[in-house]
Design a protein that fits this description.
244 residues; 2 domains; Tet_transcr_reg_TetR-rel_C_sf; transcription regulation; HTH-type_TetR-like_transc_reg; Repressor_TetR_C
């Protein structure tokens, strides 16, 4: 049995007072909805029990505590991101698609993304994602230890940008707009004698308002392509085409 999982025999089979038969999937569905509607603070067993129409204690038949539930939510996001993903022979294209899938999914669930990005779920969807990513890097020709280290750098970069962009989306609209306008107004007006480097690139500073996810991913992939060439890897044409 995976660490932290509730034995099947302890799980409720009788309908709740609202007529719903509980399941791990249903609880995760409602928890995700709660967080998306009311924010991370809404993730409590009491509020979840109300949403499910059951005594809150029934949730403990499926999850030890709210942190255990959070790990299940994080794994749900990974599963959603990876659904239907079958990488082809081009390992660079596979990593690129994997990165964009994760980024899109986290932006679609901004209120849970920041909570989920830093966790290790120890669950099936994460197992598959890690297995796939490391497999792509081994296919590139990296030895086992190097493939693991490079995968850690890859996924941390992707998750970091995904969480950052999701957090920005979760801001109140006026705060988000204020941050974006700052590059075009506040930074434009800084005195050149005090900030000479900013003054030199003044006209380009509005670019800072855009996300840097795609640029960061391409820089990382280019670095991996170069290192794969040294390691004897092959099939790197995808990154070369994209980064010229």
């Amino acid at each position: 049995m995976a660490e932290g999982r509730i034995p099947v025999e302890r799980r409720r089979r009788r309908p709740t007072r609202s007529g719903v038969v509980l399941s791990e999937e249903l609880i995760v569905d409602r928890a995700l909805r709660l967080v998306e509607q009311h924010g991370p603070d809404a993730l409590s067993v009491r509020r979840l029990g109300t949403a499910l129409g059951c005594d809150p204690s029934a949730v403990y038949r499926y999850f030890h505590n709210t942190d255990d539930l959070l790990l299940a939510l994080a794994d749900r996001l990974i599963g959603e991101a990876m659904a239907g993903f079958e990488p082809g022979e081009d390992w660079v294209a596979g990593l690129r698609e994997m990165a964009h899938r994760i980024h899109r999914c986290y932006r679609a669930h901004p209120r849970i993304a920041a909570l989920a990005a830093s966790r290790v779920t120890r669950r099936p969807h994460e197992f598959r994602a890690v297995d796939t990513g490391i497999g792509l890097l081994r296919r590139a020709g990296f030895d086992d230890a190097t493939a693991v280290r490079h995968y850690a750098a890859f996924v941390d970069t992707v998750l970091g940008h995904a969480a950052l962009d999701a957090a920005h989306l979760a801001l109140a609209p006026e705060r988000r707009a204020g941050d974006e306008v700052a590059w075009a107004e506040v930074y434009q007006s800084l005195p050149g004698e005090e900030y000479p480097q900013l003054a030199a690139v003044r006209r380009e500073l509005p670019l800072m308002a855009g996300g840097s996810f795609e640029g960061a991913v391409e820089l990382l992939l280019s670095g991996l392509v170069g290192r794969a060439g040294v390691a004897g890897g092959s099939n790197t044409g995808g990154a070369e085409k994209q980064t010229r």
